[in-house]
Amino acid sequence: MVKKHVFQSQEVAEYEKKRYRNWDQRLVDRREKKILQTYLSKIESHCPLLLDLPCGYGRFISLSLTWGYKVVAADLSPAMVARALQRGRVEGVTEGVVLDALLGLPFKDESFGLILAMRFFHHLHQEEERKMVLHEFWRVAQKDMLLSFYQENIFHRAQRRLRRWIKRSPTQIKMISWGKFHREVSEMGWAVVEKKALFPGIHSQIIVWLKKSKPES
User: Fold this and answer.
1) Is residue 4 part of a domain?
2) How many structural domains comprise the chain?
């Protein structure tokens, strides 16, 4: 299991200030939000509750509220949840929960009309961890989930190795093949509705629209 880092208040402020400051990361931010906007325009839900996990500092709060959802912002870091709530209260009421998804989700079955799981899956390095989280998402979702993962990409892997060498960053991500991803989500009861690459051939992040089906036996 990869060691978890829990962001403290000062770290959250620094992360929010610097994370999407450079031009390439601003492009990533805009592209992610554009893809999510496209999916949100197609999803029909009778339940307004949206689980944003991990919520981080609330980067997608505004977008979610714009589409009429009541957001439950969840994260391992209390400071991240606090910041997401602060951002959310500018536009609407948002609830926050501090939790470790690998220990299960403290919600009733089918509590959420939509689950948003951005930039989380690639931090789960073991298949059993990914499947456990997928199962919990399946349990608390009514129908839909928007989830991102990192697909095997030689160019992006080389780019990350170079960046880690220059910045001495300890962060490691898990890239998996599309076949492996599809098998894992299918076994946990999710059907792929649509997938969109962030920047095809250059960036390995894929954002997928999943819908509940029956778990494979």
Assistant:
1) no
2) 1
Residue type, 144: D
Q: Any long-range contacts for 13-16 (C-beta under 8 Å, 24+ apart)?
A: 13/83, 15/57, 16/57, 16/83
Q: What are the pLDDT digits (tens) for 129-157?
A: 999 999 999 999 999 999 999 998 766 55
Q: How confident is the model at residue 91 (pLDDT cuts 50, 70, 90)?
A: low
DSSP output for the chain: -PPP----HHHHHHHHHHTT-SHHHHHHHHHHHHHHHHHHTT---S--EEEESS-TTTTTHHHHHHTT-EEEEEES-HHHHHHHHHHHTTTS--EEEE--GGG---S-TT-EEEEEE-S-GGG--SHHHHHHHHHHHHHHEEEEEEEEEEE--HHHHHHHHHHHHHHT------EE-HHHHHHHHHHTTEEEEEEEESSTTT--EEEEEEEE-PPP-
Q: Which residue has the tokens 């610097």?
A: 18
Q: Is this model's pTM higher than 0.85 or not?
A: yes
> At 154, which CATH number?
3.40.50.150
